[in-house]
Amino acid sequence: MSIVPETYLIAGSTASEIAAGVEVAVSEGRLPPGATLPPVREVAAMAGVSPGTAAAAYRLLRERGIIETAGRRGTRVRARPASTFREEIRVEVPPGVRDLSQGNPDARLLPSLHDALAAAARAHEERPAMYGTGDDDELMALAAERLRADGVPPGPLAVTSGTPDAVERVLAGQLRPGDAIAVEDPGWTALLDLVAVLGLRPVPVRVDDDGPLPDELRRALRAGVRAVVVTARAQNPTGAAVTAERAAELRAVLGASPEVLLIEDDHGSGFVDVPLHPLAGATSRWVLLRSTAKAFGPDLRLALVTGDPVTLARLRGRQRLAAGWVSHLLQRTVAHLWRTGAVDPAAVAASYGRRRDGLVTALARRGIRAHGRTGLNVWIPVADESTALTRLLARGWACAPGARNRIATPPALRLTVSTLDVEDLEPLADALATALTPTTSGRYG
To answer: How big is the chain by its Cα radius of gyration, in Å?
Structure first.
């Protein structure tokens, strides 16, 4: 077990100063993950403060996701502190190696922005948005129409600067540090980082190709989670998509806990070819989010959010106190792209599908089980991530380590298909067959 290095002394005259000093030491590596911190009374003696001040400093650090209290094992730096983001777990890609680790959409499938930006500029000249201006009427009308067509219950609408912005505001408005939240495992890296930063306690829920497993969700609810996050389609990293049958099962499970906050991520809208089977409305507190980042490009990041009136009011209230609003130039640009059909979702989905399904099929012929029902990624369970990554690099390919996405599920690799062409699939499958230990598991754990 690690202990606090002798060269590091806890100091400060207030709880905030002590907490800040420990946080800096963690971010600089002077207090490594797993390092055991002294008991409260020892901290008080080291810093020359009262035990109450030392306890308050530890409370601040726990709320920030920096440390954790592990019963008789004492207080220690988290294995992955909130100041160490999962995105930093990556492979250094040497020159000449094909990089399949980034998770970006195919730039060739993104729409031209010239006309949309010009239209937004003209609208700005005619009626510039000022303080107090509401969200763009056309964008809100188009969003409401699309949501109704997909069976999402009617509710108020909000616009945020992407999915993470919306999720952070919703969670911060309804949960408190220490609360438990059910998250998919494996799941979205940014969400797992956000949960740590907010000081929440993640409860992993395993998934298969059809989405979260009902028994796993039921277990998490019995464990007392106050919120549940579900990806509707194009789940990152597995490509899972919630089917009609699975949605009915999950709605039944959620219906038994109506007080739980449901956050439904439908970032796949616009580039997937399977229908949405929403869970929205299964609980009294819910939100459903749709991002434009994958269909229109990450720099055109905007999310439409709907939900129950109380949750949406809290989100908008926190937004007004911070950023205030999302740029109306951006809103009008997205509205123009939607109105003019600048992206053909079916064609985009088919393009990703040819590459994703082609790779999964090529791997299956080589005895390797892979997952990628929808979206941009293929998830491949492996015996050992480090060995597989090293062997694959030696053959000219780089992918993302599954450790970025996992909590309790076994090792795996994530490959993004966006930069692949169909002729790349067989050579890549050959390289993977050489590098990987085949698995026959039908689930991710």
So the answer is: 23
Query: Which H helix or E strand runs over 319?
Result: helix 309-321
pLDDT for 230 beyond 50 = yes
Alpha helices in 112-267 (DSSP H): 114-126, 137-149, 163-174, 189-197, 214-222, 244-255
Q: Is 391 helix (H, G, I), strand (E, B) or coil?
A: helix
* pLDDT 10s digits, 15-44: 888 988 888 888 777 888 888 899 999 999
Looking at the predicted structure, is the pLDDT value of residue 6 above 50?
Answer: no
HSE at residue 328, side-chain half, CA atoms within 13 A, is 19
| This prediction's pTM | 0.82
For 115-140, the pLDDT digits (tens) are: 999 999 999 999 999 988 899 999 99
Tell me how crowded residue 45 is: count the other CB atoms within 10 A of its CB: 14
Q: In degrees rounded to 5, what are phi and psi of residue 443?
A: -125, 180
Contacts of 116 (CB under 8 A, 6+ apart): 333, 334, 336, 337, 340, 342
Q: What is the distance between the alpha carbons of residues 114 and 284, in angstroms, rounded to a whole number?
A: 42
Q: What distance in Å separates the CA atoms of residue 398 and residue 430, rounded to the nearest whole number?
A: 14
Q: Classify residue 432 as exposed, middle or buried by CB count within 10 Å of its CB (0-12, 13-18, 19+).
A: buried
Answer for the pair 121, 329: CB distance below 8 angstroms, yes or no. Answer: yes
* Alpha carbon 279 to its chain's center: 18
Tokens standing for residue 372:
């990628």
Write down how long the chain is: 445
- Rounded to an integer, what distance in angstroms lies between the CA atom of residue 377 and that of residue 212? 17
What's the token pair of residue 9?
């002394």
- Residue 427: both structure tokens together: 């050579």
| Model confidence pLDDT, tens digit, residues 399-412 | 999 988 999 999 99
Contact of 35 with 61, CB cutoff 8 Å: no
